[in-house]
## 1
Amino acid sequence: MLGRVKCSPGRSLAPPLLAVLIAVAGCAPSDDSASVAVPAPKGEQARLCRALHGKLPDTVDGLKRRTADPVSDFTAVWGEPAVQLRCGVPEPDVLKPGNEHYNPLQDAAEINGVEWLFEKQDDGYRFTTVLRRANVEVTVPGKYAPEVDVLTDLASAVKKTVPVGVV
């Protein structure tokens, strides 16, 4: 059985409750940003990813570039829901012999001179460059099917800044 709650005369819960609501609202992301996990490339990979970031297009497949949250030279986003690019990510598990997800026959294709590995996700696809000095990962929500279309707009920047080679 619940007891009765008694408030002291002259004491209100409104100010503390209002303060909590303001604090929570202040933590909400703005409409112009999209949350994305930031990779942590080192050395040459970090340098290549910074160069790529400076050459990325303002639009991909007609989607306007937005601000990634947190802001980083290793990430970029376009549209809502966001197409996410992350540079300097580890090699995909499907390419690691001995990994439970290893698949030597995983789908891949060359698009405008850049080789991409295709991985189906619950909602869309994740594409990762292969045979480049830094791994570039692009996640595309199913809303933008055919998801591969965004890669045509990203290929030029990748070719110019991330040379062919093995990580």
## 2
Amino acid sequence: MKRSILGLFLLLWSGLVGCSTTVSSPPDAVRIRWARDPENLDPLIVKTSGALEVISLLHCSLLQPSEAKGEFLPWLAQEFPSVKRLGDSLMLVTYQIRPEATWDNGTPVSASDVVFTVKLMHCQGLPIELAQARFGFVEDVIPTPGSPAVFRCCVGGSLLTTSVAPATSAFCLSMR
């Protein structure tokens, strides 16, 4: 009886010691504690304010709002886009991506990445209705031949010219 209790105790103790790990993190690591789990980190399926905060820290948009100045500032974009009207309800918004914008592996962010993001946002059957409703006015993205960092957004609808640049700025959320 004593042997079986001792064996059970040793088995339980070895299981507890074997499962516990010490986590060592680099000295420059940043730890953030959230009030609750963000639930989802997909930039096209943001349902909670916590998830939106995490997405804003992880991903860049073309223009970033500045709370201090109360205006938009170029972030992933080199500068503010140029806007050209093509009739009453169509505009061409041209962006240039900063040369410093790179992915985690060092590959530069290109216009083809933006094209992929917009095509993904227009896919039917994906659970991204909110993103489709917010950015449905972006009808097409056209990369500029010979300039991998320059692209044009074909924007439809009755948007005012002054509101197009900030409105198109956030659709590149999936870029880091």
## 3
Amino acid sequence: MLAAGVLGGDEDEVRHEWRGEWERARDALIAGAVPEPAPEAAPERSRRTAFVLAGAVALVLVAALVFVFAAPFGSEPAAPAGDASEFVADVTVPDGSEVAAGSVFVKTWEFRNAGTVGWVGRYLVRAGSFGNPGECATPERVPVPQTAPGERVRVSVEVRAPDRPGHCQVYWKMADEQGHILLPNTRAVFFSVRVI
């Protein structure tokens, strides 16, 4: 049905409307009279309907684009029930620290396993960055030591600052051995440095 499938009309209303048209035509044929066409919508109402439909189509397209591009490609497995992490501290290189251009430094964070699931075979994976072209160089992932529920753990990454002054910020998320992001609804940890 064009009116329901393509134009976005309510399927039940469209069926009801068309059934009425068919019944009027049938009754007119039985009575031997010419069927009287249903009154047409006023032009202003048609224009309003067209604008409403155009707005609805635009909204659906925007929602589809957000769904496609905001969600990761492929489906990520759900985190195990009871899996939780808590950021404790920046152990080294606090955010906003100044580092020399071209230098190598080690960033260390401390986390607490705040859930009921032990952390085994986990990594912090690089999940994005912004800053200078030739941004801070890091490995794509670093291991998270095995951590029982309630325990604290320190995770470190070696970073090479860019050769030119500027700013560098790199985000990290916890993942399993296959690279599937765990705890997808938690904030990423990051480091942020000024390169001088």
